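Subject: sequence -> structure tokens, single chain

Hey, anyone have a minute? Need the predicted structure for the following. Not urgent.
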Amino acid sequence: GAKHTFFAVNGATGALQAAVMAICGPDDKVIMARNCHRSVYSAMILTGARTVYVMPQYCGVSDLPGGITPESVEEAVNENPDAKAIIITSPTAEGVVSDIRKIAEIAHKNNMVLIADEAHGAHFKFSENFPDTALEMGADIVVQSAHKTLPCPTQSSVIHIGGNMVES
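Reply:
Had a minute. Here:
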């Protein structure tokens, strides 16, 4: 379902860095989930982009961070209309999925690129029992780490380009 897919080595770390560096430059503002992988933090340093954090929900029962709500994204977008991109992790390493469909709508309504770290969700496309993929829900750039949930050797990953916000 991607317009274009790039195969990458160095796992989702290198793929996420490439995705962020393709979109962001010095002093660009990025709305970013606070529970993003550390590779996204290093990408912020490499690009010189400025980060605005969105906090994940907290699940007191499991004592784990939950998903990113569309409401928190919309609030961050309203406070930072000059942001260039939104970056979220879905699913998280613990399996929590955010409402990417609504977050993508918010991003696109405000001319922002949505980058989804779907490293732990490369298998979603292969069963109707899994959630829709981030690409199916409207994310513009989706990074999947094939070696985490698919039978791929070493640190293989993919960068999918979808929608009309990003040229491949």
